[in-house]
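Researcher: We're teaching a course module on how sequence relates to structure. For the next exercise, students receive a sequence and then see the predicted structure as tokens, so they can try to spot secondary structure elements on their own. Here is the exercise chain.
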Amino acid sequence: MFIGRIYKAALGRFRSSLQLRALAYTVALSGSALVLLGGVLSFSIGNGLFSTRTEQAELESHRATFAVSRVFSGVTGANQQQLTKAIAEVVPELESIGVSQTRQVAFLYSGPKNSKQYSSPKSTNFDLSLITTEFRARVLATEDIESQTVQISRGGESIPAILIGQRYEVPQGHPYELYLVYDMYNEQQTLGFVQRTLVLGGLVTLMIIGFFSFLVTSWLVRPVRDAAEVSEFIAAGDLDRRLPVRGSDVIAVLATSFNHMADSLQEKIKAMRQLS
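Model: And here is the predicted structure for the students to work with:
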């Protein structure tokens, strides 16, 4: 009941105040424009960060291929011991070389499933469920690298990452698949900071717009309010009331016309009194 009375009072105040309506409409339209602009900027920056990170990940994947080739460069002939050792060194080698951000590695054997002499090493935190059947089929069907966006868990938080896969053939012709996961934690943090900045900047901008809108509407509405007050005095019999005329703009023209109307009304009333 109390809330209903407050709502009715606020609604009545809103309907009766030209300045309040003008201020509300200005802030609402400005806020909508800021939300739209912030959304476009956030989307554009997010796409830019994602594209840049994807290009960087693909470039580092090419470098990783050369690093794997160096690992197997010492394997000669049919030396099974050297081959097994080299396979085991792939993951530590790729984890140790300098990259801009954390990456996880999986070097999976894709030959006959009944062959147990060839291992499939991977990073400790590598989630093999990220490699779907469809993505693995794409990797096996091409000589180029394949990539897709995935979600990984880091510190209990789900963050986007880029999964890159490519075929690789080790010495003696055994087929392998090299998978690399590059997280986008830094990019996500950057985008979050940008979004928070846009929100804060938008709120500050909206407050500034509201403040200046209040000043402008006060300046514009005051002559109308004065005219309404003077009209009430004239209607009550105080025929000597007039509006102040300042400048030569449309408001001054309005005040001048109003005063002429009041003068004309006063003269007609005096004439009527003399006739009576």
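Model: If you want an answer key for the exercise: The mean pLDDT is 84. Residues 67 and 97 are 9 Å apart (CA to CA).
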